[in-house]
Amino acid sequence: MTAELMESFTHVFVKSVRNSFYPVPQQAIGVGSAFEGWSPCERDVVYRVLVPLSPPPGHAFHLELNSAGQTAARTFCVRVEQLCTCRREQLGKKPLCFLHHSEEELRQKQKPSLLKTLCTGSYLDVKKTLRWFHKLVRSAWLRLPESSSWHLVFQPSSRSCQFRLSQGKQSLTLEMLLGVRQGDSDIFVISQPAETQKGGSSISVSSQPAEADSMPSTAWPESYAVAEVKFFRHIARQVPRESLHLKCLQVFTCILRGAGFSSSTWKTVLMHLLSSVPLSRWRRREFARRLWDIMAYLRRSLQSKRLEHFVLGNTRLPAEISLPPATGTVEPLNLFEHLARDPAAHAEAMRAY
Asked: Bias regions of kind Polar residues — which residues (predicted)?
């Protein structure tokens, strides 16, 4: 239902922005646990989708890596550049050029540039963009056939668009994240920090807890969620039919919820093991052995104070996962770097283990 709903939304979105200079929403991509085939708690499933934004006519997006905090979580700014449109026609008419026509002529005859509406300075502003997108979703919903039978209520969220749909006893929570693709790759910069997206912080998951409200409004965190979804789909095609690798993940993220380690820590460990333990060994009869493998991998990572990011700097990813040229050659991020710097945090993590 989420996929069908987002297809309907996208169709209306594109029509709504056609004659403007707002970003153009593209087809949504399902991300997170629900689209990877598992969920930490089935009663609280949130269906997250990433809505890629393309620049409007006469504009281009350029990603600029922020210099601060690179050892924890990379963030980017999306610089908006105006392009010459003097030789371009749009829907049979020639648009005015933002670079070569006067301000007065542009103001009188053409809708404002993206730089005038959703940017702070030359950079795309997350909060301004989300306020615009909330209005777009609200108006689009009234034009969808689902609006006649489902009730939509927006949920509070500072860096995403989240709402709950209900129809009698049925309900569905959907969260839309906005993003800009890095080139033609599966890596995006998105509106929401990764840990917020994945479901809470932990004593041992990140060397810099991501607080959405404290981030600059022009900061777009890097996201590997699309690459991770593609990795799990790749694994699903390779493992035996009765494989229980996702059940292993649910054991740790659901049964041990709140025990000290976040779901993203367990998922990172599992992905590393799926790349090193032969997939033929994830059968039902070896379930307990694989649970112990996960615990042993976590123990070694805690003792060495090193748990490498699975995507960034990983040279063994399946070929179908596309990375920006520079991403595959960077030094892998150490998700346990803070444990090496803080003996008290390391001792607490060992106690939790």
From this structure: 197-209
